[in-house]
C-alpha cells in the first residue's frame, strides 16, 4: 500500500495532492492544501520517502507496537494538538494521549483536521514553547 501511495505522491503536482490524499482529507485540510501547503507537503514528502519507505512504515507500525517508554514517565511540559476533523489520526488517539501524558495541555480543536494544524496553529505552539523555554 505504501509503495502505491508513494508512487502517486512522488509524481504529484501540487494540484494533484488533494486527489492523491482524497480519502484522508477533511474540509479544513483541503482548504490549507489549496492555500499553499501542498508545495511544502510535496517537498517534505519527497525528502522523507524519496529514498525509501522505512520511516513511513515505522510511523505506521508505531500505532500498534509499544513505543519503548511509558507515557506516565514523561516529566517535561507537553502541549498536545489534535484536530477533531482529522481523518489520518483518529481524534480518540489524541484524547487518549492527553489522558495518559502527565500534565499534558491538550488542544483538541473542533476546527482542524490533520494538516491544518501545521499551517494554522504553529504560531500558537511556538508561543507556548517560548513561554516555557
Topology (elements, then pairings):
Layout: H1 2-11, H2 14-20, H3 27-49, H4 54-61, E1 79-83, H5 91-100, E2 105-109, H6 116-120, H7 122-132
Which percent bin holds the helix content?
A: 55-70%
Alpha carbon gyration radius: 16 Å
Order of helices and strands: HHHHEHEHH
Q: Kindly, what is the distance between the CA atoms of the first and last residues, rounded to a whole number of angstroms?
A: 41 Å
Mean pLDDT: 92
Strand order within the widest sheet?
1-2
Tell me about the biggest sheet? 2 strands, parallel
Tally of individual domains: 2
The portion of residues forming beta strands comes to 5-15%
Question: What are the key terms here?
Answer:
133 residues; mainly alpha; 2 domains; two-stranded parallel ribbon; 7 helices; 56% helix
Short synopsis of the structure:
The protein has 133 residues and is mostly helical. The protein has helices spanning 2-11, 14-20, 27-49, 54-61, 91-100, 116-120, 122-132, and strands spanning 79-83, 105-109. It is 56% helix and 8% strand.
What does the model show?
It is a single chain. Helix 2 crosses helix 3. The longest helix is centred in the N-terminal third of the chain and has 23 residues, at 27-49. Strands 1-2 form a two-stranded parallel sheet. It has seven helices and two strands; from the N terminus they run H-H-H-H-E-H-E-H-H. The protein has helices at 2-11, 14-20, 27-49, 54-61, 91-100, 116-120, 122-132; strands at 79-83, 105-109. The mean pLDDT is 92. The protein has two domains: 2-61, no CATH class; 71-132, no CATH class. The protein has 133 residues and is mainly alpha-helical.
